[in-house]
């Protein structure tokens, strides 16, 4: 999408084209200006347009340029942290509200896909959180218990059932979450954008917002080519925040994550590898994820950036890791590789900030942005519509909190992943 094959990889090669847009070239007005065209911004635009409002979306690069066009496509329920940890992380009454909202969020994604006819390889057959060893089994057992206590449709699978579902004997068990599923993420975000435009939203790509001016009751958001004036501004730039909202980015530590996609597997291999087409990831701290796309390519990912020495180290490791997980696949060749940055917050919970009157942002998804971004985008639309007040949302409004030792932590993640994969791939 940005001329670099390692930015959006397979998703850029297989997504339907983005809707055509033009950069902002004049002065305009709107009911809300949305900065950033990922899941959060496009969902906010879609819900505002569906309610008869006129949102304008400004996107610095292209629709889905950020995490939304680069991710694994696991439409998960809940957050990275366990349900019982959420109230501790964000306090009452928000914790249980957030768990309930994000438990239902995959349903919102699949409803939108169906309602708007978005072609994005959507499969709602559940996801598998695969346990590595006894520690991993204890982890998924605790998660299963905590979700079931809240009435969620999850099932703990023993090792034999897991082996059948995954097509591999390496896992001690798995948590099957039937609320969840997979999508082609770039196709989904482009579909959200196209649906929003059809309902009356305007989206301007290649239009980085460069400044906010408080006009007293309204905001003027400027770009190099023009400006948009509106009573509300939504900042939806998350880990890809460019210069205009440095505070949103400084609050997050960037964790690189890559994906490699094989050529389509043979019909025989597809009978055993993820035969139910669930998306999967494991309980390791340097985790691996794997899923199939619509053509039967296996998309395999882990922590790391495909740049410099990382390109070779991670690909070598991935080949060996796949041979260990799926020995019957034999030697695999990767046809696509790409990576992106996941924004991590101190307590692994997303952040809601009011930067000024009617100037709002939600960010810090910690690798869980498809369903949460869609759901928070709808929340932000409701805020603009006056249907909810900020304290009725499921996240507390917090002060910006720059991450401590950010550069050192980022270097540690990238170099640490290379070291771990280099060591693990030595014979
Ligand atoms: C490799 C990877 C794997 C992941 N896997 C998963 C997964 O399987 N499941 C899951 O749920 N989540 C996953 N995530 C997380 C998820 O992709 C993100 O949380 C989500 O995409 C965030 O969406 P967003 O709309 O808030 O931000 P983004 O999609 O990052 O969009 C922000 C946009 O803002 C634009 N922007 C920035 N500054 C400006 C400006 N000044 N003016 C205008 N526009 C601007 C950027 O260009 C960008 O397009 C993954 C992320 C990565 C990187």
From TrEMBL:
Residues 1-21 are annotated as: Disordered. One of its GO terms (molecular function) is oxidoreductase activity. InterPro entries: FAD-dep_OxRdtase, FAD/NAD-bd_sf. SUPFAM superfamilies: FAD/NAD(P)-binding domain. Residues 31-383 form the FAD dependent oxidoreductase domain. Pfam families: DAO. One of its GO terms (cellular component) is cytoplasm. Keywords: Oxidoreductase. This is FAD dependent oxidoreductase. It comes from Rhizorhabdus wittichii (strain DSM 6014 / CCUG 31198 / JCM 15750 / NBRC 105917 / EY 4224 / RW1).
């Amino acid at each position: 999408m940005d001329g670099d094959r390692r930015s959006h990889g397979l998703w850029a090669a297989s997504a339907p084209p983005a809707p055509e847009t033009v950069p902002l070239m004049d002065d305009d007005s709107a009911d809300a200006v949305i900065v950033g065209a990922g899941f959060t911004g496009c969902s906010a635009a879609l819900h505002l347009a569906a309610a008869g409002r006129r949102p304008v979306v400004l996107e610095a690069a292209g629709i889905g340029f950020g995490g939304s066009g680069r991710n694994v496509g696991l439409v998960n329920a809940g957050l990275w942290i366990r349900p019982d940890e959420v109230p501790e992380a964000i306090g009452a009454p928000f914790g249980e509200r957030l768990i309930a909202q994000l438990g239902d969020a995959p349903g919102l994604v699949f409803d939108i896909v169906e309602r708007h006819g978005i072609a994005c390889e959507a499969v709602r057959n559940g996801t598998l959180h695969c346990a590595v060893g006894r520690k991993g089994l204890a982890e998924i057992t605790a998660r299963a218990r905590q979700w079931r206590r809240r009435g969620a449709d999850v099932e703990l699978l023993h090792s034999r059932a897991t082996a059948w579902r995954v097509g591999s004997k390496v896992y001690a068990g798995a948590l099957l979450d039937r609320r969840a599923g997979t999508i082609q993420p770039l196709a989904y975000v482009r579909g959200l954008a196209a649906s929003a435009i059809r309902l009356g939203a305007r989206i301007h790509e290649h239009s980085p917002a460069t400044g906010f001016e408080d006009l007293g009751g309204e905001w003027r958001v400027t770009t190099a080519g023009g400006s948009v004036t509106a009573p509300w501004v939504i900042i939806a730039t998350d880990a890809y925040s460019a210069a205009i909202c440095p505070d949103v980015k400084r609050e997050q530590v960037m964790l690189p994550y890559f994906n490699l996609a094989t050529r389509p597997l043979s019909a025989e291999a597809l009978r055993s590898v993820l035969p139910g087409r669930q998306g999967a990831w494991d309980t390791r701290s340097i985790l691996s994820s794997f899923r199939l796309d619509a053509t039967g390519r296996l998309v395999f990912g882990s922590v790391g950036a495909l740049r410099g020495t990382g390109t070779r180290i991670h690909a070598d490791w991935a080949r060996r890791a796949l041979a260990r997980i799926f020995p019957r696949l034999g030697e695999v060749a990767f046809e696509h590789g790409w990576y992106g940055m996941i924004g991590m917050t101190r307590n692994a919970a997303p952040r809601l900030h009011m930067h000024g009157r009617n100037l709002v942002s939600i960010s810090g998804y910690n690798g869980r942005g498809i369903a949460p971004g869609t759901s928070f985008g709808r929340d932000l639309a409701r805020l603009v519509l006056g249907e909810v007040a900020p304290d009725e949302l499921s996240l507390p409004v917090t002060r910006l909190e720059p991450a401590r030792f950010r550069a050192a932590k980022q270097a540690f993640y990238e170099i640490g992943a290379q070291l771990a994969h280099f060591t693990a791939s030595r014979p």
